[in-house]
Amino acid sequence: xxxxxxxxxxxxxxxxxxxxxxxxxxxxxxxxxxxxxxxxxxxxxxxxxxxxxxxxxxxxxxxxxxxxxxxxxxxxxxxxxxxxxxxxxxxxxxxxxxxxxxxxxxxxxxxxxxxxxxxxxxxxxxxxxxxxxxxxxxxxxxxxxxxxxxxxxxxxxx
Length: 158
Hints:
Blueprint: H1 5-41, H2 43-52, H3 58-81, H4 85-108, H5 128-147
């Protein structure tokens, strides 16, 4: 049986997606595991960063600082191990939309604060353009995992 040229062209994207999607998924999960580690270890430091956003009342700041890193950890683990990865990718994507919105909103308000993504230094100003581009890249990776099937079906041989 010989394959026609059209079948090879259709198989290439499937093979690419099949090979790239797990890599994207694992890297995305690792990013979230790395991001949550410091926050879990130092909830008070993360609470200081959440406070700097000036959006939540004190009781919600504490709750956010304690609970949110664990949500990141669960999403990261789900992505790394490929279990419930669609739900994790959806949550990660939604988080990136919210975080990007918060960064841009604080920029609009004239607040240049540490984003708290990978560092707990509440004093360090952030580069809004870099943070926005990073978040959009993470959003793209989350969307990739969310919208591309876990297992691509290969075209049946005729």
